[in-house]
Amino acid sequence: MGKLQRGAHIVWDWNGTLLHDIHAVIDSTNASFAEIGLEPITLERYRDLYCVPVPLFYERLMGRLPTDAEWQVMDAVFHKHYWARAAACGLADGAAELLAERRAAGRTQSLLSLAPHEHLVPIVRRHGIEEHFVRIDGRMDTSHAGKAERMVRHLAALEGVAGAERVVVIGDAVDDAVAAAHVGAQAVLYTGGSHSRASLEAVGVGVPVVDSLGEAVEVAERLAA
């Protein structure tokens, strides 16, 4: 028989959660907007309007969905600028210590991101935190759909992790809570990334919103207790 899991299994989000990259995201978003003549966006407006899938976010800004040609240009420009800036982004405050402490205490955690897998793994490795995760999954296709079905596959691939009732997703986006609910897990949402507190609180009762990753972990452990 395998070792019994202790505490919550946390599925971490990457961009805007463990990686503090919101300013790189804003700069890259504005570079992509400039390509099709849109005005730049402020951090506050971005956090109020951001949603997944990303084309719907652009619809909120433009009043219409971008054309296929516009989308391809914006997406290519965004990624070109973002990956040029990502290497300079640091981890969120306390992230490395939290991950190490949980692993040392026998807790399990994994990473599920919409970032392309071939970019995600090297950047996680560069930050020296790869060993703290039992599994790392980035996006392996060109779909810009949210995380719900990816979460199904991610949990199915985990070994030695108890059922979804002990899984807590920690992320910075409404989509993280949607993905958690899709698999019967719980979620804690963090205000340091892509959404405003008001946007996150709109998810509803039962999805706590926190201002630090330390608090997110404490709440996650209580939810799974």
Automatic annotation (TrEMBL):
UniProt keyword annotations, A-Z: Hydrolase
Cited InterPro entries: HAD-like_hydrolase_sf, HAD-like_sf, HAD_sf, PGP-like_dom2
Protein name: HAD-IA family hydrolase
GO molecular function: hydrolase activity
